[in-house]
Each structure stands twice: as C-alpha cells, then as structure tokens.
Amino acid sequence: MQTNFTAAQLADPQVAESEKILRRCVHCGFCTATCPTYVTLGNELDSPRGRIYLIKDMLENGRPADEQVVTHIDRCLSCLACVTTCPSGVDYMHLVDHARIHIEKTYRRPLADRLIRGLLAKTLPYPGRMRAALTLARFGRPLSPFLKRIQALRPLAAMLDLAPSSPARSSMAGLGIPQASGERRGRVAILSGCAQPVLDPGINDAALRLLARFGVEVVTPEGEVCCGAIVHHMGKEDQALDFARRNVDVWIRELETGGLDAIIITASGCGTTIKDYGHMLRLDPAYRDKAAKVSSLAKDITEYLAGLDLPRLDAKGVTVAYHSACSMQHGQKIVAAPKNLLKTAGFTVRDPAEGHLCCGSAGTYNILQPEISGQLKARKVKNIEATKADVIATGNIGCMTQIATGTAMPILHTVELLDWAYGGPRPQKYKQKAAS
Amino acid sequence: MSEAIQFLPPRDSVMSRRAAIVTDLAELLPPECLVHEARELVPFETDAFVSYRRLPLAVALPKTTAQVAAVLKYCHRYGVPVVPRGAGTSLSGGAIPQEDAVVLCLSKMARILELDYANRTATVQAGVTNLSISEAVGTDGFFYAPDPSSQLACTIGGNIGMNSGGAHCLKYGVTTNNLLGVKMVLVDGAVIELGGKHLDASGYDLLGLICGSEGQLGIVTEATVRLIAKPEGARPVLFGFEASEAAGACVADIIASGIIPVAIEFMDKPAIEICEAFAHAGYPLDVAALLIVEVEGSEAEMDAMLQSIVEIARRHQVKTVRECQSATEAALIWKGRKSAFGATGRIADYICMDGTVPLSKLSYVLNKTAEIVESFGLRVANVFHAGDGNMHPLILFNANDPADAAKAEAAGNEILKLCVDAGGCLTGEHGVGIEKRDLMRHQYSEVDLHQQMAVRAAFDEGWIMNPSKVFPLDGRA
Known about the structure:
heterodimer; A: alpha/beta; Fumarate Reductase Iron-sulfur Protein, Chain B, domain 2; Rossmann fold; 4-stranded parallel sheet; 27 helices; B: alpha+beta; Uridine Diphospho-n-acetylenolpyruvylglucosamine Reductase, domain 3; Alpha-Beta Plaits; 4 domains; 7-stranded antiparallel sheet; 17 helices; 19% strand; globular
C-alpha cells in the first residue's frame, strides 16, 4: 500500500526497513482471521492489519507512541500467525519489533507497568534470580486473589499463579554431560537457557541423553547468557542486543576452537530469536557477519534430530496431542519434523483443532495481559482435551507452563518423549500424572 | 491517495454535533464496543480497496442485534450516515467510510448459532467468516458452497451485502442461491426476519432483494444458509496452454458441451508465476495460460467427466494435463489460487477488476484487456473464474506514484466498459461499492437507475445507509 515518508525519515535505516515492509501490505485482511487477539476481541485495532496501520500512521507522522497505540501493540502476542497467513509476505515480525523499540524510547508507561516490566527484565533472563523469585512466589501465592482485585497489579497475580508449586531438580545434577556413544555423528553446542533450566531441567537432560545416545558430542560453552527474547519483545533493544553479542562471542569462540555443526535450542521461543541475531545485529559492522553465522547454525532440537534419521520403533499405544508452539510453526516454520519424529518413535500423534492459534503464553504475555491470555488458554486446552490423547507434547517451555495451569493432562517436551522412546527413563511428569 | 472517485460532502448537521453523537453512542454501547479516539479511527479509514480512504466519525462494534438496532435507530433519528463493515475485505470499497459516518462493524458478532443437519442449514451471526462455516461442519460431511478467495477472512454479512461468489459457484451458485433466511435491522431500528429454513418464502422475494444490496437496505445480523453434503471425492486438474486465447476458447467449449465442472479457474503467465512463488503448488511455469478444472463425485463420475474435458482441451492444443495426486497437493493448488490477489502484493500494488462477460467473448476480452493496459504503460495479471466469465484482471502499478495510480484507475475503467460493451456487466461478485459507481451509467440508463433508487428509497428515504456507494452522486432523487 501507499506510504508517505520523507527522505529525511528514510535516512533512518530502521524506518527505511519498516517502509519496505509496509509497502508489501495490500490491506487484504487475510491476517485478521488467524490472529488470536482479533478472533478473541473482534476489533480491527487488535488485528495485524489494524496494528500495521497504527504503526504506519505513527511512523509516517514521526510521532511518539501514545496510549492508544501502546494498548494495541501490547496486546499483540508476536505469535506470527499473521506471517504464516499473509500471501503478500509482509514481515510483520520486524515491523512490530520496530514499533516496540519506538514505544520503549518515546512512551512513558504508568508506574505500575514500568515496575513490573523492569522486574521481569531483571529477573527472567537470569537463572539465579529466577530461582530466587520462584521461591518467593511460592510464599507469595496466597496474595494472588487480593492482587487480582487491583487492575494494575493483576500481572503480579498472574506471575504468582504461573510459578510451579515445587522446585524442579535435574536428575543429572552433578553428573555432567553424558558421553557420546557409538559412531560420532556431530558436535553441537546446546543452549542452556535462562528460565527453562529453572522451571524444567528435565528437558535439556533428555536432549543431552538422546544426542549422546546417537553419537552427537554436546558442549555447553562458558559465558552463554539469555538469548534476549524476553527483553527484545519488551522493546528493550540495548539489553537484547547486549545478550545477543555476548552469545555470538561465546559460540563463535567455540566454533573456531572446537568446531560446531549446530547450536541446538530446546525452547522454540529462543530459537526464533537466535535465528534472528543476523537481522538484529545487521547494523553493527563488528557483529553483523558473526551474528549471521550464529543464526545459520541455530537449529531447533527437532530440526537437528530430523537429520539424524532415527530408527523406526514399534507402536507404543501412547497417543500424543502435539501442540505446535507459535515460535515453532510461525516463527521458525518447523511444522512436520516434531510430529514425524514422534511417529517414527512409535507414538500416535493427533493435531488439536485450531492448531494455528496461540495458547496465550507468548513470553511475558501471560503475565502482562492475563485476561486475553486466560481466554486463549481456555480455548487451547479445550481443543487439546478434545483429542482425548494421553499426553501433550510441545517444543517450548512457555507453552508448557501456560497449558499445564489449565489442564490435568500431562505435558512434556517432544524431546522428553523421544528420549523415553529411545531408551531413556520414563518422564517424571508422565509418571506422576499417570499415577494420579 | 487517489481522488478520482468523490464521496458525498459531510453533512453539516452531523459534523457540528460530532462530540454529542459520540457521547450519545457511548450511552448505547459498552465501552469496548465504541471507537472514537482520533488515532484509533485511522485503521478503519479503508478496506481492501486501499487507494481510497476517509476517516469515519466513530466506529460501533455491537455484540447483539439489539445494539445494532439501537445504533441504527439513533442514526436514523439524527440523520447520521451509517457504513456497515464485516471484515473490511471489500475490493470495491464497499466498507470505506466517510467523515460524517458511523461505521457499524459486525466483527464482534461472530458466533455460529445453530447447525441443523436435518434441514441442512447453519444459522450464524453476520460476523462469522465464510470459511468457518465449512470448518464447523466439515467433519460431519458438509460444507457451505460459495467460496470467495477471501473466504478465510470475509464475513457472511459482507457476502450477503455483495452477493459474493467464488471458484465453486459455477456448480453451486453464488450467495443468493445459498441463502435461506436473515434477521436484519431496518434503518429505523426495526428488527425483521426474512425467509427461514426453506428454499422459498411466500410473497415477494425480499431475501433476493437484500442479497447484493451493499448495505443500503438495512443491516443483516444473522443468516441461515444452506449446507451441502460433501462429494465422495474432488480432484483439481491443471491444463496448461501455449496461448490465453486457446484456454479461453476451451472454457467456452467445455460449458457449451453441457459439462458443468465444480470450478474452472484461469491464470495467465504473470498470475501463474506470482501464485507459484507463494504456494509452491506445482503449477506449470512453461505455459502461457493455465486452467484449474475441478471435478467431483465418485471415482467413475470424475473419470468420465475428466475424459470428456481432456478431449475438448486436446482440440485446443492443450500442452500439459496434470491430475493432482493427493489431498495435500489439491489443497496447495487451491491455496495458490485463493491467495492470488494478496500474493500479487509481493511484486506490485494492484487494483482488481471484476467484470463479467459472455463466455463466447472471453478470448476477445482477454486480448483487448492486454491492449488497454499496455496502452497505459502498465502490466496486468489475469486470474479469474473462467467458467462463469467473471474476469479479474489485476492491474499492477506503483501506489507511491500518483500518476501511475491514476493510469491504473483509468485502465480499469476502460476494461470495465469493455466488459459491458461485450454484453457483460460491471461486477460479478465484488459489488459496485465506490469503485464502479460512476460507471453505472455505462451499464444502465437514467430510467433504470431511478427505478433502482426508488426501491432503495423505500427502505431508506433519507439516504443514510452507505450513501456514497452504488449510485452516481449526481442525479440522485
């Protein structure tokens, strides 16, 4: 569609990029139909097309962000279902990223909002602080009903509700990384992550066992930090780019010293961001090429496993509802690989209806937008439970935490089921739920 | 922004009471159902006919028929224009507002109310998307037949307003042939029901009048539509030709032989390339024109019909014939076709024409279209419902170049006049909207137009319903 920027505005490379994105949009409206917030709220302003239009209007007029624009951009989950749907190839992801950065730079949020966002940005990306916060949350949970009564404090209540009731422990604590067995098939780094090892260390334990069993040497290079997704989605660009640069340094060093076939990621939310490092650091000449290299090495665990040609196993009599995380299906366009791996490993796989719709987790969304998130969770759980499967599999810790608070069905990471099928222990969560 | 098409000047009586109108509407609707902040009105200024834009006065997003009625009653009383909107996917500007108008958008009324398989009907709110009806009944073996390419997003209310068609309408008819009943609100706020769960109603066919009335006779809030049992099987087959004329003549011969496939879709070379790049459907790239012909029924029925079609195609020197091998492939073939307009956005801005011509004139009109567009120094891609002669030339241009945009509009007008002169009409399924409004005189005499306006006036004497659309602005009664 037509755009209206001055040459001076287009001198800003970020504006120039957004202008190109906007020019692709033909305003056809297809994106509205698969947008979780439009489907829930029924308002153009809470659809991708509406947000594109709000962003266009704000950027063209060189205006600071205002309350209305912020309200509707904040409601965007960044699930990227619209990007999958868009026939014109509008790069909504980078447009809304730009809008979030613009908001962070030009808009002063109300005090409570600032404090909560600051707290999240200073806690979630750091495993030590996250662990401490979860301990506090367990004690603070009785406060949740009181906090819910005050609109501005609802995110705090949501945070308390999401915290698991008992601390998670790694079954492999102190044992180190298992040695690769048999013929050596590759050398990879695995992202340790920030929130995931605190919430559910069993995921990477399973990944390490499985990779070792199939001859893949795994390293966890020193110095790795949060991928930056959490702060990136809050528009905190400097912090996000700082995380990205540190990780690029760590992985490039490992690549140059020991060699790496891939950087394995077991949380698809992180995967989407790391695959975007090349773009995030495109304006930094010192990091541009290194970041692009890292992005090209980044692989979701299922993407990597699909290349290993794992042996076909007999049917297990276990039915799995596969929930495709938005960052998996829309962000990384990985659709068939996880399901094919599960089928090859002997599981029966079912696709829940409305699989394209977000579960409402979306990074910090379930904390910052608890009402919409809750509605999406209920819809997702209803569709998953209708499959009458024994267990839910997915590839993202955020979805696991979110969906687990809405259903009694056990929910596991795809790699936990694969590890079990190929000789690993039966996952704890499946045991507990099956026994109860 | 293009300026060739005018809107009615805003009414002073409305503009001077702007603030009061917003205050009054806030009394009638819950807070989340009213948009009036300046910033928030901007995304409602246009639809998929994005070259034209006008900010509305306010946007109402009612959740119930009662709220629709309350807003209409208010607007009627104070002479405030009303522009109905569904999903805002109109290609003719049917949902573009104007400065003194309240947009009545039914996007929050998106529930399926009843599925009645015994009577083979679905009753839905007007904001339900076209495709979601077929999705809701698909596992039970049914579907809703009209399938506009925007069916993923467009609403049933909008389909009724424009009497929408789609690829599969060749066999099953357009919206009016599949609509059994509506609940609607008249301009004064009265709620009425027309039709029911049966094929015909006693008395005048008022339902037929409402269908295609472009939101000028009232606002439909609920619809009862026909469900059709899915066929045993369906198979799209690709026919590639060396020349567009041969493909056009082949279509005419298929229809003339008495065969009615479910769909016959046409794509020329530019359209094939655009759609293939998006959908990777396996369209042949070495042909000048492609027909997607879908047959359905039992295997024997499909084989027999296909055999006859292939024989006809051979007489027109068909170059490639490819039957699709799987359901996935069939889905990709249709995904590519149905995304054609949007996918065109990857290479250029476009406006999409909607003229319909007699099949015998298909090749002639295709050739003439190419000449017209070339004479303006522009490019064209053709992708359309060939089986019912419903042409969709996409005129490609650069929206950031006003001269280019003006040329595209002028070329479009020439093409539509050509369709009329060839014995066809201005619009097959997209409606008149604002886009073809000023061409209505090319199709109709003054007497014809006045008779139509007289019907309109019987419903809305004060011209508040979607007033800038359908009829030329001068010479209104």
